[in-house]
Amino acid sequence: MSEPSAGRCLVVSLHDVAPPFEAQLRRQLARLDSLGVSRRVLKVVPNWQGRYPLPEAESLAALLRAEAAGGSQLVLHGLEHRPRGPWRGPWHGRWRAALVAGRAAEFVTLDAVVAERSVREGCALFARAGLPQPSAFCAPGWLITREATEGLRAAGLRWLVGEFTLRDLASSRRLFLPAFGQVGGSPLHEAASASLNWWLGGAWLSRAGAAKAYLHPQGDQDGLAVRRTLRRVGRLVAESGWRPATYADLYGDV
């Protein structure tokens, strides 16, 4: 794993990229364009809830092909973005899944074999939609068990995106990334997430070489959490000289 590229990099990611949210996604992309953030990460769910296979959504697939051609990175974001069995793994992971990501924590319910199969199915749906094969994976809710991570390795993925980390699955080295954003939940959930982000990395953001911002299509797209996130992205890019980047840019995985 090489050292990150020079300059201060801001990775702006859009979560839950799936056919039911195409209108919200297009609006988010337009707002990022207006801030000068044309290079971004799109976290794609290839079969949302098991009912929206991406190859059947040609309008969205065409948009994603254009984004990839323009320098954005497509990340595999689960397969169906919903639990598919009982919670697995240590108690603290199961507790967090049940408390804050119960409707999303897909990869806390899969063993290594099913996780590998799911990743391969997701990559096949990318191919059928004419999209480049992903090298990075972000678990729904940022939650994944150790055994499911082994399934990612077996399927040939290289990078695992966590809530505050980018992990090289080949070497297990991690890059810590301060984060801020909008989770698409209730005002209480948004406040709790903002507090966690500040506690884990807020003070370090001014000294970090790379950081991440994120948006979800759920929730009030004109609400405080979205507006605050976009304002901060705009200030970092326009006033502080941060460079819009992708995860692939951080370690030259192109």
Give a short summary of the structure.
This protein is an alpha/beta fold and 254 residues long. The chain is built from eight helices and twelve strands.
Can you name the CATH architecture?
Alpha-Beta Barrel
**Unreliably modeled segments:** 1-6
Given this structure, which CATH class is correct?
A: Alpha Beta
- CATH superfamily (homologous) name: Glycoside hydrolase/deacetylase
The global form is globular
SSE order, one letter for each helix or strand? EHEEEHEHHEHEEEEHEHEH
Number of helices: 8
How much helicity do the residues have? 25-40%
Distance between the termini: 13 Å
Notable traits:
single chain; 254 residues; alpha/beta; TIM Barrel; 6-stranded parallel sheet; 4-stranded mixed sheet; 8 helices; 39% helix; globular; disordered N terminus
What's the arrangement of secondary structure elements?
Blueprint: E1 9-17, H1 22-34, E2 41-44, E3 47-48, E4 52-53, H2 58-69, E5 73-76, H3 91-100, H4 112-128, E6 136-138, H5 146-155, E7 159-161, E8 165-168, E9 174-176, E10 179-181, H6 187-202, E11 210-215, H7 224-238, E12 243-245, H8 247-251
What does this structure look like?
This protein is of the alpha/beta class and 254 residues long. The protein is built from eight helices and twelve strands. The chain has helices at 22-34, 58-69, 91-100, 112-128, 146-155, 187-202, 224-238, 247-251; strands at 9-17, 41-44, 47-48, 52-53, 73-76, 136-138, 159-161, 165-168, 174-176, 179-181, 210-215, 243-245. The strands form three sheets. Strands 1, 2, 5, 10, 11 and 12 form a six-stranded parallel beta sheet that branches. Strands 6-7-8-9 form a four-stranded mixed beta sheet, with no helix packed on it. A two-stranded antiparallel sheet has the order 3-4. Helix 4 packs across helix 5. The longest helix has 17 residues, at 112-128. The radius of gyration is 17 Å and the shape is globular. 44% of the residues are buried.
